[in-house]
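ARCHIVE CARD
CATEGORY: sequence design from structure
SOURCE FIELD: tokenized fold
FIELD CONTENT:
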């Protein structure tokens, strides 16, 4: 018998696909340069708002979106790798997947922060550049263009390769639950709360994060 379990609540799914769209837009606008950099900045601020939201949702979201449900110490990761993990280890992110998720979140945050301090010395300068010494700006621009960009590309390639591996080798389609929210499991498991009340809470948190980022940028630029 298979049980249908709500694993990814709607706010987490929205977060994921909005993040993917913004990151694609950031890569395209960075290549276009010139006037498109205005959109590079706006999309970067949207990513920051999404990341702040995800940080809060890691404590207030549905069960499987909470950091406590998927962050495991080295022992937990080792147990998973040696096939000794508890059955529920793969309901949300498995312990290895969780590491790549965390790495993506941390490096996206670093990319946004270094972007705020980046200057192309033509027309695009992040809102923090005017407050920082020029060698910091030089370092941040170097990181943004030559390190963070490649680390993120590597993490995203790993992310997509893992998903393809699960579909082709393990016959486990992880993408469908990231769209519909539900997984079919052979055992009963806790469901993520995806009630209208939670969705209203998520919307409120998201609006507050957006206002904080938008307000912060306007303040920095004034
Ligand atoms: C710009 C590229 C991408 C980034 C930065 C990204 C980032 C992320 C992040 C941060 C999570 C964790 C979600 C959370 O717990 O909040 C995640 C999970 C996931 N992503 Fe992506 N993602 C990208 C592209 C994609 C694409 C193109 C697909 C599908 C074709 C995809 C499918 C998934 C799936 C299925 C999960 C859940 C994995 C699991 O079950 O553990 N991602 N992604
Ligand atoms: C996750 C978010 C971001 C990603 C993935 C990203 C990605 C990129 C990439 C791939 C480049 C092109 C590097 C190259 O020329 O090879 C770039 C350039 C740039 N980005 Fe971002 N960026 C992000 C956020 C931001 C933010 C928030 C700002 C500023 C508020 C920003 C400001 C800049 C500037 C000024 C450049 C041009 C640097 C130069 O050509 O010297 N970026 N970004």
């Amino acid at each position: 018998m298979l049980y249908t379990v709500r694993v990814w609540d709607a706010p987490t799914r929205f977060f994921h696909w909005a993040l993917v769209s913004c990151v694609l837009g950031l890569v395209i606008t960075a290549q276009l340069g010139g006037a498109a950099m205005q959109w590079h900045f706006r999309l970067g601020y949207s990513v920051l708002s999404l990341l702040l939201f995800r940080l809060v949702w890691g404590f207030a979201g549905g069960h499987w979106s909470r950091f406590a449900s998927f962050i495991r110490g080295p022992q937990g990761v080792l147990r998973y790798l040696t096939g000794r993990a508890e059955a529920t280890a793969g309901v949300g992110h498995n312990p290895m997947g969780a590491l790549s998720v965390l790495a993506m979140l941390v490096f996206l945050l670093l990319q946004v922060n270094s972007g705020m301090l980046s200057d192309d010395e033509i027309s695009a300068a992040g809102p923090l550049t005017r407050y920082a010494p020029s060698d910091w700006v030089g370092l941040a621009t170097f990181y943004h263009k030559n390190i963070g960009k490649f680390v993120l590309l590597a993490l995203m390639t790993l992310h997509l390769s893992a998903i393809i591996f699960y579909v082709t080798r393990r016959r486990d389609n992880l993408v469908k639950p990231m769209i519909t929210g539900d997984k079919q499991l052979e055992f009963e498991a806790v469901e993520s709360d995806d009630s209208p009340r939670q969705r209203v809470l998520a919307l409120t948190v998201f609006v507050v994060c957006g206002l904080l980022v938008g307000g912060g940028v306007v303040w920095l630029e004034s």
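CARD ANNOTATION: Residues 12, 15-16, 19-20, 23, 54, 65, 93, 97, 101, 104-105, 156, 159-160, 163, 174-175, 178 surround protoporphyrin IX containing FE (ligand 1) (CB under 6 Å). The chain is about 65% helix and 5% strand.
SHELF: design records, drawer C
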